Amino acid sequence: MEDVWGKRFKKESSTDIMKFTSIDGFLPFSRDTFNILTKDINKKDKRILEAGHGSGRNCIGLAEKFPKSKIIGVDLSNESVKIGQLGAKKRGLNNVLFIKGDIFHLPFKNNYFDVCFNQGVIEHFEDYKKVIIEMTRITKKGGKLIIAVPNKYNLIHRYYSTYRRKIKTNDIELEILFTRKKLKKELEELGLKKIRINGSGVMYRLAKLRLNSLYWNGFFMNLAILIEYSIIKPLDFISSRFFSKNFGFEIIASAMK
Question: Do residues 93 and 106 make contact, with C-beta atoms less than 8 angstroms apart?
Fold first, then answer.
């Protein structure tokens, strides 16, 4: 797993390290998702951990937003840690730290963080419940856990995921798709309270489709942007984000310990 992600991130970050470690990323909707993911985080949260930081963009975004908070990212991949460190260094940030670690055995004492979160991580593990338990362990009483996972009812991604598993050879085969009900139940069983479920990026997977033709890559990207901003967002506005909450690419759950 470490080698697979490391190779992927090294390749993707080689073209533009600043863009790769930015919350705007290479794709549309990234900032929107970041804003939903971090909606319940505020300046009173002084210790914030991302368990499985990947590119490091969320940690960097939080470090820029909350300069008086300490942001820590933990990841198994050496390459991810290096990329995060370089992205922070280029921005002159001194309130964010990236370290190598195992999210099943986080190197922190009990009840240490005000916030513990991750995005697009736990679905890659059969025993993902152990990750949530470990995140809960290091979160303070009254602290917040935030978890984002792929949504089973985002049909574009659901069909793509099935194709990738059954037809296309892929280095990372496991990807568990969640429902709102399933994720909420997992958090309730751990005794977490005030669980709120949100969602983001209905057209994200369409924008991310890649073919051999640059023309079609651009076509899908533009089509996704057109649908998201001319149809989905107006409908979300008048329906309290009904479509993004139920059919977004990611389900985003926030809970209190």
Answer: no
Domain coordinates of the chain in residue numbers? 2-256
Residues in the chain: 257
Contact of 87 with 25, CB cutoff 8 Å: no
Nearest Cα neighbor of 53 from 74, 33, 76, 26 is 74
Q: How many CB atoms lie within 10 A of CB 28?
A: 19
Cβ neighbourhood burial of 85 (10 Å; 0-12, 13-18, 19+): middle
Residue 99 forms beta bridges with which residues? 74
Cβ-proximal residues to 120 (8 Å cutoff; 6+ apart), any chain: 54, 148, 149, 150, 250
The contacts found for 206-209 with CB under 8 angstroms, 24 or more apart, are 206/156, 207/27, 207/28, 207/29, 208/27, 209/160
DSSP bridge pairs for 178: 151
Q: Contact 77/85 with Cβ under 8 angstroms?
A: no
Q: Residues 71, 96: contact at Cβ < 8 Å?
A: yes
Give 203-221 pLDDT, tens digit per residue. Answer: 999 998 877 777 777 899 9
Burial of 94 (0-12, 13-18, 19+ CB in 10 A): exposed
* pTM flag (> 0.85): yes
Radius of gyration of the chain (CA): 18
With beta carbons less than 8 A apart as the criterion, state whether 187 and 174 touch: no
- How are strands ordered across the β-sheet holding 47-51? 96-100, 70-75, 47-51, 113-119, 139-150, 250-256, 193-200
pLDDT one-digit tens code per residue, 30-66? 899 999 999 999 999 999 999 999 999 999 999 999 9
In CATH, which superfamily holds the domain spanning 2-256?
Vaccinia Virus protein VP39 (3.40.50.150)
